[in-house]
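All the exercises in this workshop are built on plain-text protein records. Sequence and backbone structure share a record, each on its own labelled line. The question running through the whole workshop is how a given chain folds. The record below serves as our worked example for the rest of this section.
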Amino acid sequence: MLLLTAKMLALANAGEWDAMSSVEAEFRACVEQLKTIVPSDNLSAEQLQYKKQMLQQILADDAQIRHLMMPEMTRLGDLLGYLRQRQNVNHAYGY
């Protein structure tokens, strides 16, 4: 999962939104698979620390991805608004 979030972040930085979406699908599949794993209470202190660091990095990458996505989401929202307005005008004039 850590590798996938790093890849998604690199793609987001490059503005490769379609490719990022594909990797996001892989990430979601990993999350679903992770839900089926029975947690182990047998982790050493070192293993727990490593797990914590990985989760912190995943969350940090996710926050950066969301930050990078905001302008794109705004642009897409504006485009959808324009298309709806155009559709309403076309409908009003019988096109």
Observations:
- The CA atoms of residues 8 and 69 lie 11 Å apart.
- The first helix runs from residue 2 to 13.
- The mean pLDDT is 90.
